[in-house]
Design brief:
Strand order of the largest sheet of chain A: 6-7-8-3-9-10
Helix content of chain B: 55-70%
Order of helices and strands of chain B: HHHEEHHHHHH
Shape of chain B: globular
Number of strands of chain B: 2
Number of helices of chain A: 21
Structural class of chain B: mainly alpha
Radius of gyration of chain A: 24 Å
Largest interface: A-B, 68 and 51 residues
Largest sheet of chain B: 2 strands, antiparallel
Number of helices of chain B: 9
Largest sheet of chain A: 6 strands, mixed
Strand content of chain B: 5-15%
Oligomer: heterodimer
Chain lengths: 535, 266
């Protein structure tokens, strides 16, 4: 279906080849997963398939790519619209119309398909993607998962033979992600659609993949079955790390396989010495009877939370459950409709300037919102000046987080993980008592994530500061959080120790916990510790 | 969708009214028309992002009025009449004879510049009324293929503007939380970067969905012209016959209000 024949790609004004001499063939009806560190060229590889690279981006392409016998060199992306559906990283950015139905019809209108055919196909897709109840809704009012389904639907409605998706689940909560992926799985099996997906969160997709393309960022690529690639890949989901740590012969890729393989280990009886975390009882944040509503629509109802120094709190819940609103109320962007929030005795609405920097550090969903300097070093110097600390301190902090960033780089040219690290070091240079992060792992690879985890753990455990993060990433929560607060529709429905909250809900349980259930282990480290203690 | 009018209807209506205001040259009438147009917008607009553009148009109009009036008072040829107050005259070189900065501000001069300002502002506000009543995406569909590139730019611009406003407030918030004093530059740089990235994304998405790859586009929902549209357009054209009918043309659209059926949510 898709053939890459000795493809090399280099962007203008760049000395780094994105791909070098890549040859691969993807057959009809295959589910192919593209993995690699951030900035390694996964998106470029996907966009090569329908010719957006280089037709839209520029760049020098050597070799040939053909899809269903058509060479992308000869045809523009529009000419392949009937053959390839492509869904970008952020589907909202690609919406052209106002309502679900119109969005589905847009591509067909462009191809001048007859109205009666369009009507039929739109109905088909509305059913296939379970969008029928939403047909007249305005796109802006849909949740993340629904938007993703509309984007996939509007690609499928053209009856393409190939569907290309760039990080389809990175913005979704675990349940919405599951929904989207199972639809893709069904399409592959029922319609013989060829699906190519790039994704960082392997734990979500790996069980669906027929083959994996692993790009290393230096231009090299490896292609193989999931079992082959996972046997020695540095990018691997927790389940594979578990298999490696337990010294199993095969790596299991699904929870089911792993449960079969680990029956003996799981079956044993273990004394659970739960490591006691020392958390001071110094209250840092106190939220009492907090309610928040926008234009008579209530967003948060009667929230009561007390947060102490040294705690790492994970705020979880569906898209639109009120996580970001709660964070924004804590940092002082929203004024509570009723109730109070106090951070170290201050009303967060009234503090500003250096006092704010020293009290609350906030990393927004888009870390680049904080940055405006022309280079990394300018950004760091600005933070040094702001916080009246010795020159170079911030940059030193950054080099500890991610070594090897050139000080002259423009922040825009950094990878997702590097940009987060820069924003983090700018914020941390003020040594805030409370650090708040909104969806910090979106678009981060495993390596960047583990850097983030160790930084935040150090900050909370060693320096005794408080960290609050809103996230969909259960694996991150399992590694990092001491306590989980679960929001649903603006209510606080669960608030307790990470172990208790995560184990009580199968959808939000991390992979290791699913494999090792009923043993109360959340991470690979937990398993190993428990096994060592009981040897 | 509540938006059932033909996308051109409100544009024709507001252009006709704008012409009438310009011809009628009566500031009080212009203000009355803008007031009625506001009521029309309040009644007929949906909750879509562009429906807020009336408010931005109103602000823009007021700015133009203020700036125009102050310039009109400061610079220009003197009009004799009752003096309100005097400003110092700034001496100008001889070749600029006939232009004066400062001097006596007469009632007549103030009124005449304010008068022109009101007419100009009203016309702008009327255009923003049309754009807040019409979906730019539907408007794009009735425009001919010949202006395809223009249409592409229009869609990108109209879907970006609401994004733009949201991004500005998001970036401002973030900078405030960083404890920074707000400055133009600190907001502008991240904003420009993001908008550029977004518009490239949108252009890529439209391109890969085949936009503009065929000369003829089919229509999923035909956009039809209803009696209601004719009524509004006819009403808009009334003052072209006689300027005194202008208020009638602003009130007519209210005839189209349908009784909303409220379905109880079970």
């Amino acid at each position: 279906m898709i053939t890459f024949d000795a493809v090399s790609l280099i962007y203008p004004n760049s000395t780094k080849t994105v791909l070098e001499n890549l040859s691969l063939t993807i057959d009809e009806g295959e589910f192919v997963l593209v993995i690699g560190p951030t900035g390694s060229g996964k998106s470029s590889l996907l966009r090569l398939i329908n010719g957006l690279v280089p037709h839209h981006t520029g760049g020098i392409l050597a070799g040939n790519i053909s899809v269903d016998g058509i060479s992308t060199q000869l045809v523009k992306p529009g000419g392949l619209a009937h053959l390839i559906g492509i869904v970008g990283q952020n589907p909202v950015n690609g919406f052209v119309t106002d309502t679900v139905e119109e969005e589905l019809a847009f591509g067909m209108e462009s191809l001048n398909i007859a109205p009666d055919v369009m009507r039929k196909r739109v109905e088909e897709i509305l059913d296939l993607m379970s969008l029928a109840p939403l047909r007249d809704r305005s796109l802006a009012t849909l949740s993340g998962g629904e938007q993703q389904r509309v984007a996939i639907g509007s690609a499928l409605v053209m009856h393409p033979k190939v569907l290309v998706l760039d990080e389809p689940t990175s913005a979704l909560d675990p349940i919405a992600a599951e929904e989207v992926l199972s639809i893709l799985h069904r399409l592959v099996h029922d319609l013989g659609l060829t699906v190519i997906v790039a994704e960082h969160r392997l734990e979500r997709v790996i069980q669906f993949a027929d083959r994996i393309v692993h790009i290393d960022g230096l231009g090299n690529a490896r292609v193989g079955t999931p079992a082959q690639i996972m046997s020695d890949s540095d990018i691997a989901p927790p389940i594979v790390h578990l298999a490696r740590a337990l010294g199993l012969e095969d790596v299991g890729l699904t929870v089911r396989d792993m449960r079969r393989m680990s029956e003996q280990i799981r079956g044993g009886s273990y004394s659970h010495s739960i490591e006691k975390l020392v958390i001071s009882n110094e209250t840092v944040i106190e939220i009492s009877d907090l309610s928040l509503s926008f234009e008579s629509q209530s967003v948060l109802n009667d929230i009561n939370i007390k947060i102490c120094a040294g705690e790492v709190i994970a705020l979880m819940g569906r898209n639109g459950a009120g996580k970001s609103s709660l964070l924004k109320t804590i940092v002082g962007l929203h004024k509570a409709t009723s109730g109070t929030v106090s951070v170290l005795g201050n009303n967060p609405l009234t503090i500003s300037g250096s006092k704010r920097r020293e009290t609350i550090g906030f990393i927004p969903q888009e870390p680049s919102d904080l940055l405006y300097g022309q280079s990394v070093i300018m950004e760091c110097q600005q933070a040094d000046v702001d916080n009246e600390i010795e020159e170079g301190t911030t940059f030193e902090l950054l080099s500890e987080l991610v070594p090897g960033i050139s000080p002259q780089t423009h922040p825009r040219d950094l990878s997702e993980g590097q940009r987060l690290a820069l924003a983090l070091s700018v914020v941390l240079s003020a040594k805030p008592k409370v650090l708040i992060l909104d969806e910090p792992t979106r678009g981060l690879d495993y390596q960047a994530k583990s850097h983030l985890i160790s930084t935040l753990l150090h900050y909370a455990r060693v320096l005794g500061r408080t960290v609050i993060l809103a996230t969909h990433d259960v694996e991150l929560v399992a590694e990092l959080a001491t306590r989980v607060i679960f929001l649903a529709d603006g209510d606080c429905v669960a608030d307790g120790k990470t172990l208790d909250v995560l184990l009580s809900s199968p959808a939000f349980a991390p992979q290791v916990a699913k494999v090792m259930s009923p043993q109360p282990w959340l991470t690979v480290k937990d398993v190993i510790n428990a096994l060592q203690v009981n040897q | 969708m509540t938006d059932t009018r033909h996308p051109l209807t409100w544009w024709i209506w507001s252009i006709a009214l704008a012409i009438a205001i310009a011809r009628g040259d009566n500031p009080w009438l212009a203000i009355a028309v803008v007031g009625c147009a506001y009521l029309v917008v309040r009644t007929f607009r949906s909750d879509a992002p562009w429906s807020r553009s009336f408010e931005s148009g109103l602000k823009l109009g007021l700015w133009i009025l203020i700036i125009r009036t102050s310039f009109g008072v400061l610079i220009g040829t003197p009009i004799p009449g009752t003096t309100i107050f005097r400003l110092p005259i700034i001496p100008l070189p001889e070749w600029m004879a006939g232009i004066r900065i400062g001097g006596a501000v007469t009632q007549e001069r103030l009124f005449s510049t304010a008068h022109e300002g009101v007419i100009l502002a009203s016309i702008i506000i009327l255009f923003s009324a049309a754009s807040s009543l019409t979906s730019p995406h539907r408007l794009l569909r009735v425009l001919p293929f010949a202006i395809y590139q223009f249409g592409l730019a229009l869609v990108i611009a109209t879907s970006l503007v609401p994004q733009f406003v949201r991004s500005i407030s998001r970036i401002k918030d973030a900078q405030y939380l960083r404890g920074q004093k707000l400055s133009f530059k600190k907001v502008l740089i991240p904003l420009l970067e993001e908008s550029l990235a977004r518009s490239l994304d949108l252009a890529a998405a439209m391109d890969s969905r085949g936009y503009g790859s065929t000369r003829v586009r089919s229509r999923y929902r035909s956009i039809s012209w209803n009696p209601g549209d004719s009524l509004i357009v006819a009403a808009g054209a009334l003052p072209l016959i006689s300027p005194s009918l202008i208020l009638l043309s602003v009130v007519t659209p209210f005839l189209l209000i349908k009784r909303r059926v409220v379905v109880p949510i079970s």
